[in-house]
Amino acid sequence: MVGQHEFRGLRTVEHVFQVPLDHGRPDGERIEVFAREYAAAAHPATAAEQLPWLVFLQGGPGGRGNRVTSLGGWMKAAAKDFRILMLDQRGTGLSAPADRVSLPLRGGPAEQAAYLGHFRADSIVFDCEAIRRALGSGPWTVFGQSYGGFCTLTYLSLAPEGVRRALITGGLAPLEGPADRVYRTTYARVAARNAEYFGWYPDDRARVSAVVEHLRRRDERLPSGERLSPERFQLVGSLLGGNTRVDSLHYLLEDAFTGGLRGPRLSDGFLAQVHALVTRAANPLYALMHESIYAQGEATEWAAWRVLDEYPDFRPDAEDPLLLGEMVMPWYFEQDPALVPLADLADLLARRTDWGQLYDRGRLAVNDVPVAAAVYRDDIFVDRDLSLETAASVRGLQVWETADFHHDGISDDGEGLFARLLTLADPDGQDR
Questions:
Q1: Can you list the domains of the chain with their CATH numbers?
Q2: CB 271 within 8 A of CB 256
Q3: Phi, psi of 127 (to 5 degrees)
Q4: Full-prediction pTM beyond 0.85?
Q5: By the 8 A CB rule, do 74 and 43 touch?
Q6: Strand, coil or helix: 321
Q7: Phi, then psi, of 46 in degrees rounded to 5
Q8: Partners of 56 in the beta sheet?
Q9: Number of C-beta neighbours around residue 87 at 10 A
Q10: How far apart are CA 79 and CA 208, in angstroms?
Q11: Which UniProt keywords apply (predicted)?
């Protein structure tokens, strides 16, 4: 414990834990993992200490735990019954951050790749178990959003004895590869979402094409100084992945030019907003490790880039190119200054063939931990059909399928989603 604070109806406690870099070698190198505890200030400190733990596993990979200044959404609902532990997964936030500054300190690209081999879901799960024991907790509730849901499935595979119940939102991972089938499904869903969006905002179809055509002809620079390419602009399609964010894409596009639909230059305001969406300076692990979350015993070989050939409407040289979703491309590491020093490392990770298994299908088939999962029917990041395939492989998993939310459901109605999943996993409310 390194600090305690109380403000705006919540109490926070900061924790730092020492864990093995390689949990298979507990006497070897150790790293620090940071987590912040949140509790409702309405619970006296002594009473809060008696509440059961809920550990939240964030989306990503490469996303640090949320920093909140008041209890709202799902956290407001959870804080009624739990102490919340918000983990900075290893490599993120204050937990042995991995980036263009720290990674070269490990040595060359080969040494860096070996190091990052310890930064997948299996290591995150064993970190959680080490932390749970250090806190003196019995089995706890695990709540996983997006990639955090992938980690939760790994938890149920590798250490189910540490889980009292599991709640998952938008995060039922395919249990086996290859990564190609993930991108075949998600390209199709992103194309459908593009069509839906342009149906709402027909003028934005022309705006997107105008920006792409402009970037083919003119050199436009982001605030950090690097050139904005047509393909990098397509990454603003990440906004299509949510109910709470999708309409902000329209506000972004209306700011594009300084003088109307086809003005002479892109506006500074537009370029600043685009930069915030496309840079990986704050989360380089997302680009480095994203495809590896689908890899088990095979190389990904830049799967999203290869599968792109089957979906030519996403190519930046298409007549009216579509906006992209969660697809990591080799050119990321040529165009984003935060990633350029990591290009050789990224290529080694893409060609790695000995990724270990993240899921134990046999163990999941006899699972006895209560599990409830929200599956979003039109999710462009985690495919509905692949999610239901996984759900059928986990004994006792309760699915709530809905078209009311997209991938950001817990930002849309987190309180309602959390309450619903908790009731599915614990219908009589006796096991809290």
A1: 3-174+359-425 (3.40.50.1820), 179-351 (no CATH)
A2: no
A3: -60, -45
A4: yes
A5: no
A6: coil
A7: -70, -35
A8: 86, 143
A9: 26
A10: 43
A11: Hydrolase
Measured in residues, the chain has a length of 432
User: Residues 6 or more apart from 321 whose CB is under 8 A from it?
Assistant: 208, 209, 212, 230, 234, 313, 314, 315
pLDDT value at position 261? 65
Please name the residues in contact with 358: beta carbons below 8 A apart, sequence gap of 6 or more.
Answer: 120, 121, 122, 150, 153, 154, 157, 173, 293, 296
Give the C-alpha distances (Å, rounded to integers) separating 4 from 10, 69, 273. Answer: 11, 14, 35
Helix (H, G, I), strand (E, B) or coil at 226: coil
How many angstroms separate the CA atoms of 393 and 366, rounded?
Answer: 9
Alpha-helix runs per DSSP H in 69-220? 73-78, 109-116, 121-134, 147-158, 179-200, 202-217
Report how far residue 64's alpha carbon sits from residue 279's, in angstroms, rounded to the nearest whole number: 16
Give CA 407 to chain center in angstroms: 10
Rounded to whole angstroms, the maximal C-alpha distance in the chain is 65
Q: Which stretch of 147-156, 259-268, 382-391 has the lowest confidence by average pLDDT?
A: 259-268
Element (H, E) at 6: strand 3-7
Antiparallel, parallel or unpaired: β 140-145 and 163-169? parallel
**Residues 174-200, buried b or exposed e (16+ Cβ, 10 A)?**
bbbbbbbbbbebbbebbbebbeebbee
For 42-94, how does the pLDDT look when each residue is reduced to its tens digit (9 = 90+)? 887 787 789 999 999 999 999 999 999 999 999 999 999 999 999 999 999 99
Two tokens, residue 399:
């699915």
Using the predicted structure, report yes or no on whether residue 257 has a pLDDT greater than 70: yes
Residue 65 per-residue DSSP state: P
Give φ, ψ of 348 to 5 degrees: -60, -40
DSSP 266: B
Q: Which residues are catalytic?
A: 146, 354, 407
pLDDT tens-digit series, residues 390-406: 999 999 999 999 999 99
